[in-house]
Write a structure and sequence with these properties.
The protein has four helices and no strands. By secondary structure, it is an all-alpha fold. The mean pLDDT is about 95.
Length: about 110
């Protein structure tokens, strides 16, 4: 169980780095006329996104596939918490389905 908890934390940290840096900070820089510092910070955080998943214990393909499902959930939560876009029932259903997929791909006993 400790291994799964560590893995989930790594997925969350990677997601926050990608969404916060690669998407949100860059979006603010390019679409909301923020200064270039926003873009540089976004690039730096995006580099962290590339590093964090290397601490997962599974192989690359499995981690990257499972991260896709985590990204769906984290994107909806970011949109809700930061941008105020409340997920509807279909967003929630899709998020639950994606987490089920993540669970099978990453944590199903082999």
């Amino acid at each position: 169980m400790e291994k799964i908890g560590r893995s989930l934390v790594l997925f969350i940290v990677a997601g926050l780095c990608e969404i916060g840096g690669g998407w949100w900070l860059m979006w603010q820089w390019l679409r909301s006329d923020k200064g270039s510092t926003w873009g540089l910070c976004g690039a730096a955080v995006l580099v962290l996104y590339g590093i964090v998943p290397t601490f997962q214990s599974a192989y690359f393909g499995r981690v990257y596939a499972a991260y896709g499902g985590c990204f769906i959930v984290l994107s909806l939560l970011w949109g809700w918490g930061v941008d105020g876009n409340v997920p509807d029932r279909f967003d929630v259903l899709g998020a639950v389905i994606s987490l089920l997929g993540v669970s099978v791909v990453m944590y199903w006993p082999r």
